[in-house]
Structures are given as structure tokens and as C-alpha cells.
Amino acid sequence: MYAAIVFLPLIAAIVAGLFGRFLGDRGSQIVTCGAVITSALLSIVAFFKVVIGHQPTTVMLFDWIVAGDLQIAWALRIDQLTSVMLIVVNVVSAVVHVYSVGYMAEDPHKPRFMAYLSLFTFAMLMLVTADNFVQMYFGWEGVGLASYLLIGFWYERPSANAAAIKAFVVNRVGDFGFALGIFGVYLAFGSVDFATVFKASPDMAGKTFHFLSWDVDIMNTLCLLLFLGAMGKSAQVPLHTWLPDAMEGPTPVSALIHAATMVTAGVFMVARCSPMFEMAPFALNVVAAVGAFTAFFAATIGLVQNDIKRVIAYSTCSQLGYMFFAAGVSAYPVAIFHLFTHAFFKALLFLGAGSVIHAMHHEQDMRHMGGLWSKIRQTYVLMWIGSLALAGVPFFAGYYSKDAILESAFAANSGVGDFAFAMGLAAAVLTAFYSWRLIFMTFHGHPHDHHHFEAAHESPPVMLIPLYVLAAGAVLAGIVFAGMMTGHHWQEFWGSSIYVAENHKVMATFHDVPLWVKLAPVAAGVLGIAVAYWMYIRDRRVPAGLAARNEPLYRFLLNKWYFDELYDWALVRPAMRLGRLLWKGGDGRVIDGLGPDGVSATVIRVTRRVVLLQTGYVYHYAFAMLIGVAAFVTWYFAVGH
Amino acid sequence: MIADIALALPEIFLAVAAMVLLVFGVYAGEKSTRFVATAAIVALAAAIVLVLGRQAATGFGGMFVVDAFGSFAKILILVGTGLAIAMSLGYLRDQGIERFEFPVLLMLSTIGMMIMVSAGDLIALYLGLELQSLAIYVCAAFKRDSTRSTEAGLKYFVLGALSSGMLLYGASLVYGFAGTTSFAGLAQVLQGGGTPIGVLVGLVFIAAGIAFKCSAAPFHMWTPDVYEGAPTPVTSFMAAAPKVAAIALFMRVFLVPFGGMVEEWRQIIVVIAVLSMVLGAFAAIGQSNIKRLMAYSSIGHVGYALIGLAAANQEGVRGVLIYLAIYLAMNVGTFGVILCMRRATGYSEEISDLAGLARTRPGLAAAMAVFMFSLAGVPPLAGFFGKFYVFMAAVNAGLYVLAVIGVVTSVVGAYYYLRIVKLMYFDAPAEPFAANTDRGVGVVTVAAGLFTLFFFVYPAPIVAGAQIAARALLP
User: Fold this and answer.
1) Contact status of A582 with chain B (Cβ, < 8 Å)
2) pLDDT at A601 > cutoff 60
3) d(CA A49, CA A57)
4) Which of A36, A544, B116, B175 is least surrounded by CB atoms within 10 angstroms?
5) Among positive and negative, which fits the CA dihedral A389, A395, A399, A405?
6) Is there a contact between B268 and A621 if contact means CB atoms under 8 Å apart?
7) What's the sign of the alpha-carbon dihedral B291, B297, B299, B302?
8) Please, which residues bridge with residue B119 across strands?
């Protein structure tokens, strides 16, 4: 069964990818949707078996690499953490598959799209079921590949290609760190097996590597390297720049890959490696600090973006920051819980946005929208649900998880914990603000583009039904699972899949924080909504006025803190200059000059001289012969044989 | 005495046949050329049978040696001459020089070559060499009313006389210092080392003489001019059989009587080999006449063959013999193609006339491409194996530098071979050639092409034969 969960999407991807032409659009859609829905149903069965039935297991497939000490197997590690991820991945993926049938109805390359989606699902499943680092890396790179293919799905658009390449390249930076981390793990532990490594982790705490002339702490180094990989995949500052650009891909892709699943792989990896991170206090602090900063940073940018998908993309970035700082204060179950709820409401928001875009004929700029609520009522309601969940309004899914995160940050009772709490709280205000800014700009006010407005229409059922499924998750995921996943008996739920060191007591204490801490997130949410209401409904001149008064700040936020410009200046341009130098100077002048071109020029020069020797005069020829003989004889006399 | 005659039966048979055909031709007149040529080919074939029937022995007081090495070389020589005669008739007819003396002269030259490779004495060596050369001098000037042909003949004769003089002078020096001209005797005298400098100087002169015959640098200067000026069938003959004979002679002289002085003579052989390879590779690039190009090509190939001699071991000898067999086939085939470069206005020798040949004469272009790739040493064609065996011998003998230079010059050389292929396949067609009407050329070219193309399928007979021959020379 477990193998079926993982490999059904692969089979579907192969079938739709290679034989899509024969199957036709409908055939490909049936094959891929069928496979992923089956996988999703089986995941639910697996969830009951593993979590409720307490039967975590490992399925050995076969040996992969056997080279001396290095032994790597293909194996599926199905524990509680994995089965939660299986639900997230497969349910969202199934929903997105079905939604795509409607969303991509006018696209001429449907089989290819469906095949990529299924391929992505397979790679993501490989990632979450990996039982060793190398297999995880396989899945990690697999999702990267699928992400690249899907961002660049509309390959006729230069911007889509650029975004795909950017995503790939930025991820390489992180992946390089991850790879180094794996090498380091093998160096330190002599194995890349999760079970072996995690078991040996406590003994490794505090030991050091000798590297060049430094002694560096093994666990901190390894965890920081692994976290570098997580930063790339999960778009944490400063490796976040690819995520907003990735919105060039079709909206279902944004929902599946760039909101619900792939970008959360980093969080999953940190949770998976909790036995290692628990031994690396410094690395944990870095995780918390980076996460907290990203949560705030991305939210500020989200305030001023005008592209509906970019707003949600920055929101994703920000929410991932929440998850990381939860993990950073050792509240891994809380982080995964937020991952779980976030997957539902963020996918809902994306697909809802997709529904809006669909209705507006692929218009994404919110300034051209407005007043849409009467045209697309169902989407409007669903977007409200998603936003309520995102803003952490009580009894929606986000309320439970976000509250828990902020409370754990506070309960950590450390410098970095307080920093995270402050950042998280500020970000909560901003989150509520930009969510309602989105809703007000899109659905309320006067239509800005009458042509599109008149043509706007509600999406077909094949797109709306998936939204209802997600909406159910966005409403219920919190209230149902909060107690199980993050309650006092969290260990019963997670079993041994998540490890928290004895001296890290956040999971026990975050329930007992002062009342104001418990209320603060809700208050923040309400405040954000109120401000948005005031600025975008009551007095519409305020935003423009604010922007005009605080021109530099506005520009700073609009240009995303100038990160892209900074990278362009600090990395891209020098690299291009260096490349040009090596190309024109190094390759062109030196290598080609001395190599191919130079050699051929020399050959021609030599040839000309040699040909000149051939004068046609007999006495010259005779002379040459005599010179030859004389030279040889002289040689023997000179060296004295 | 009878035993001696039996030993030299192939040579004696050929000599008698040549003279009979000469007399016949005188009486039958010019019309008999085709018959004389056919008879000559039959005689050469019969000579091959006789060569195969000889047992290894020494005769004529040590002057004449029959062994597997000699027999291998003789068979190559006989085959080369036979193919050259078979290819020549059409050209001779077209040029109005279809005379019965031509096959007879080639036969006489062949007898000289056979004596060369069987020589057991410096005197016999000289006799064979001169007999071989005199016939070729005449052949080079065979088209008497052409200034180019007569110039070629005269140049070859003058320079050939100079080289013969050097060889003789060297032989006399060796005799003066060693007291014998017999190879066996020399081998004995020079065994212990401490070679007198006079012998060494004599050896240099002998080397110069033989190097001239196989057109190795720096004694190659005659080659391009003579190759270009001589009638094409003569060139195709000169580029094949005499090269085989000269290099075989080189090996016999240097490895048998002077075998004890390997360290000394290797130095000049290496220099000669390197100069030949480099010159052959570079100078050929500048040529626009295909026969001149083939002249430099043969200089380069002699250089490669001499690598095997420099290795001075059984493996090297084997490599050279394989190389010569393959070289013979490639060269005859290439000249077969050149002989097909005929238009209504006459024969063409310009490389540029080959442009677009693939479109006008695809079969001919394919054959030429096979020969060019093979000459360049591209696997799996025969030329690659020729180079492979000598380079391997050089590497095993520790002559790494020589092998590396060989490979580098092969790369440079590949340029001009492949340029012809490019010209034939990618350039706009030049005026097409007339259809080939001569069956001899067609058959020989196709046979050479098939040999070159499929040598790698069944190389065993030649490799095994060369192995036996090498063992006979260097036990």
C-alpha cells in the first residue's frame, strides 16, 4: 500500500508524459487525477494505521548504492511525521489535479501539464518518505526539477523562463549547502541512514571537526548546512527571491508547489532532523532568527504589492517564517501543525485567486479589479474563509496553529524567542492587513476595468468543488487536530518521529502563557482587518496619501527591500563581468588564441615556410641531402658516440 | 650452384620472363602492350607462388638471403607492381604512351627490389638498388615529349646518382673499417661494441642512400617534383612497391649487420622519422596538386614506418611490415581514384577539381573518403591499425616522445586528408569527371577500398604473416 501511495503518481506521470498524445487530453487527466486521488485516499488509510493505530513502519524496496561503507537503500519510512505529510501532499495534490482540469481547459498542452504535476507529486512523496539523506536529496532535487518545469510551463514567455531559471539557480545555492550537509553527515557518522544518524546524534553533541585550522562544532555545522538547503527550498531570507517570481507558473502550480507542499519541504526536513537540531543549539537559534525575520520581512512587502498572486506569495514566505521560528524554539509539532493547516488555507487562497484570475481572463493586477463580489459570489465567500484562516481569526484553522506558534515563541523565554514573538506579532497585524487589502481591492469598490468586469463569470464546478474541499480543511483542520498534534499528549501523536531534548520544555509550557499573549494574535488580526477596512473602504485616499508622504519607505517596500537589485549588483553583474572576461579574454583570446586558432595559424605559417624550401632546383635538393649527411656525421663526432 | 639458383628462382624467373616479353614486344610492335602487360601480371603472380615455395636459406656465398622477412616484403612488392601495371594501361593509352616497355621496365625494377630485400651483402644491396632505380628513372621520364616528365626523370636520376654515390662511399668506409661487406660478417665484427667511428660515418652515408630511396627527410626533396612530373601510373608505382622495398632494406641493413649498434643509429633514425613526419604533415597542407600532396603524404608515412624501425625489436618490425601492407593498399587505392580524375579535356591533378564529387560521382567520392580517412588513421579503417602497431611498438620500446610526435603529426596530417573529404562532400560541385572506362583501375580501386574498409574484420593473415617475418629477421 505504501509503495502504491508513492509510485502511483510516478506511473501516471510516465503514462501521461510519454503517451499523452495517444491518450488525449481527457485520457491524461483521468489517469493522473485517478492515480493521485487513489494515493490521497490511501494516505488517509495510512494516517489511521500509523498515527491512530501506532504502527510506524519502514518498507524496504531494494538496495540502491552499495560501495564499501556507503550503503544506501530505497526504502519508505512511514512514521507519524511522514503520514501527516502524505495527507498534506496527496490531498492538496489531488485537489489541484482536479482543479487544473478546469483551469487549464484552454491550454493546448494539458497532458504535459498533468504529467508534470504528477511527477512533482511523486518527487515530493519520495522526499517525505525517504529513510536516508540521499533518498531525500533525490526527492529534493526531483521537486526542484518539477518546480522548474512547471514555473517555465508557458515557455513561450521570456519572463516565465527567467523565473524558472531563477528558481533553479537560487535553489542550487541552498542545495549545495544541503549536499555539503549530507557529505558532512556521512563523514561524521559513517552513514546517511536516518535511523543510524539520529541514534548516534546525542553522542556527537559538542564534538568538533578539524577543518583547516579551525575546530568547528560538528552538530552545529551540519545543521546549519542542512538548514541552508531548507532556506533555499522554503524561500527564507536571503534565498527567498525566487518564490515571488515563481508566480509566473500557472496558478494551480503556485497552489500546489509554491504554497502547500514543496516550499514546506524545508520545514519538514528540519522536523525530520529534529534529533540532530536538538543537539545544535546555535543552529536552532539561527533557524528561529531567520524564520522570525522572514515572517516580518515578507509581510511588509506583501503590504504594497499589486499582483494578486504576489501578495499571496509573500504571505507564503512569511508563513514559512512562522514555521521555522516555531521549529527554532524546539516546537516542531507546532511547526508541522502550522504547515498542515497552512497547506489547506493557502492552497485555498491560491486556487481562489486562480478562480478570480480565471474570471478576469488572466488579469492579475488588483488595481484593475474591484467590485467582483457580486459576479463571483462563491469565490468571494471562499476567499473570505481562506483569509480568515490566514489572519488567525478564532476557530478557523490558522487561529490554532498561529496562536500556538506565537505562544511557543513567547514560552521559549529566550532572547531569540522574544525576538520571534515580536516579529511574529507584528507580522500578524500585517498579514491581516494585506489579506483584507486583497479582498477589498478585488471584490469591493468600483470595477476599474468595465470590459473585464462585464465578462467576469463564476468558475465551473470542476474548479469550485476542489475549493470547497480545501475550505473544509481551512475551517476544520485546526479545531480537529490542534489537541492531537500540539496538545499535552503530543508525544502520543508523533511517537518517536519528532524528538525534543529533555531540557527544551516549550512543548509543555506554551499552553500556560499569560492571557494577553493568548489574546494578542487575535487582537493583531482584528487590528489589521480594521485598518484595511478604514483605508480601502472608508477612506480610499489614505493609501495614496500615505505612499506619497512616505515615498522612500513605500519605494523600499514596493521594490522588495531592493533584494533583487542587491543581488544583481553584488552577484549577477560581477558574475557576468567575470564570465565576459573569461569568455572574451580567457577563452577567446588565450585559449582560442593559443589553442585552436593559434595552432592553426602556426600550422599555416610553418607550412608556408616548408613549402618555400621546395625550390625546384636540383642543386638545392642535393645541397639539402649533403647538409643532412654532414649534420648527422657532425652529430656523431660531437657526441663521440 | 643449383641450390643457389633454386633459391633465387623467383627473381630468375621474373628476369627471364621480362626479357622474353621484351623480345616479344619488339617483334609484335606497339599493339602488343596490352598482352605484354597481362603477361607481366601473370608472371608477377607466378613469382608470388614461387616466393611462397622458397625455404629459408642463404646462397651465393652469403650474398643472397631467403627468409620469411624477405618473402613477406617480396610478396608486397610483387602485389604492388602487379596492381600498378593493372592500373596503368588506360592512362598510358589516353596519353599516347602505351608502349610495351612499360610493364617490362616495372618488372625489371621489381627484380631489383627483390634483390634488395634479399641482400646479404653490401654489394648485393647496391646491385639491387641500382637495378630498381635505373628502371624507375626511365619510367619517370616515360612521357618523353612532356617537359615535366623528362624533368622529373632527370632530377630523379641526378639526385639518385648522388645518393647512390653516398651509399657506395658509406659501404666502402664500412668495408675499410670492418674488413667485410657481408652482413653476417659485419654483424660478427660489430657485435662487441666499441664501434670504430669510421663504421659509424659509413653507416650515416648508407642511411642517407636508403633514406633517399624511401624519400625520408631530409633526403626527400626529389619526391614532390618527381611525383608531380612523372606520369600518374609511374607515380602510383613509385609510391608503393619501391617504398616497401626501401624500408624493408632499411630494416634488414640496420637490424642485421648493424644490429649491435642500435643505440648509435637509433639517434639518426629518430631524427629522420621526426623530420619526415613533421614535414609530411605540414608541407602537405600547402599543396594544391593532388600528386604533390600524395608525395608529402608518403614522406609522412615513411616517417611513421621508421618509428617501428627505431623501436628495433620484433614488435617494431612486425608493426612496420603491417604498416607497409596497409600503406600499399591505401596508396594504390588513392592513386586509382586519382587516375579516375579525367575529363574530356584530359587528366586533372588539382585538388579543387574534387569539389562536390559526392554529388557527381558518389561511388568514387566514397572510395576516396575511405582512403583519406584511412590515411589519416581514423579507426576502424586499416590505416589506424598500421599506426597503432608501430606506435605501440615505440611505446613498448620506451620511445614515448617519438610516439607522441607521431600522434601529433597525425592530427595535423588529418587536416589535409579530411579537407579533401570536406571538399568532396560539402562544396559546390566542380565540372564532373568523365565516366571511368578502364576496368583495371576500377577493379584495383574497389579491391583496395574493400581491403582498407574491412581489414579490421579479419586482420589475422597479415598480422600473423608479419609476426613470422619479424621473427625471421630478429630471432
Assistant:
1) no
2) yes
3) 10
4) A544
5) negative
6) no
7) negative
8) B64
Is A612 within 8 Å of chain B by CB? no
Which of A236, A251, A360 lies closest to A298 in space, CA to CA? A236
Q: Does B288 touch chain A (CB under 8 A)?
A: no
Nearest CA-CA distance, residue B292 and chain A, Å: 11
The answer to whether B222 faces chain A, any CB pair under 8 Å, is yes
Q: In this structure, how many other beta carbons lie within 10 angstroms of the beta carbon of residue B275?
A: 20
Selection from B70, B50, B49, B161 nearest residue B120 by Cα: B70
Block means of pLDDT (10 residues each) for chain B, length 475 residues?
88 95 91 92 95 91 92 96 93 90 95 95 94 94 91 93 94 92 90 81 94 91 93 94 95 91 90 94 89 94 94 93 95 94 87 91 93 92 92 92 92 91 91 84 94 88 92 89
**What ipTM is given for this predicted complex?**
0.89
Identify all chain A residues contacting B271, using CB atoms and an 8 Å cutoff: 632
Strands A208-211 and A70-78, bridge-based pairing: unpaired
pLDDT digits (tens, 9 = 90+) for A175-233: 999 999 999 999 888 888 898 899 988 888 778 877 777 778 888 889 999 999 999 99
CA distances from A247 to A149, A152, A539 (A): 13, 10, 31
- Cα first-last separation, chain B: 28
Residue B244 contacts A, CB cutoff 8 Å: no
DSSP letters, A49-78, are IIIITT--EEEEEEEEEEETTEEEEEEEEE
Q: With cut-offs at 50, 70 and 90, classify the pLDDT of residue A477.
A: confident
Q: Which three cell numbers stand for residue A147?
A: 518546480
Residues whose CB is less than 8 angstroms from the CB of residue B402 and which lie 6 or more positions away in sequence, other chains included? B270, B273, B274, B307, B310, B394
Asked if residue A461 has a cis previous peptide bond (ω within 30° of 0), the answer is no
What length does chain B have? 475
Residue with cell 667511428: B197
pTM (2 d.p.): 0.62
pLDDT digits (tens, 9 = 90+) for B437-467: 788 899 999 999 999 999 988 888 899 999 9
> Do the chains contact at B155 and A608, CB–CB below 8 Å?
no
CA distance B230 to chain A (A): 14
Is the Cβ–Cβ distance between A535 and A542 less than 8 Å?
yes
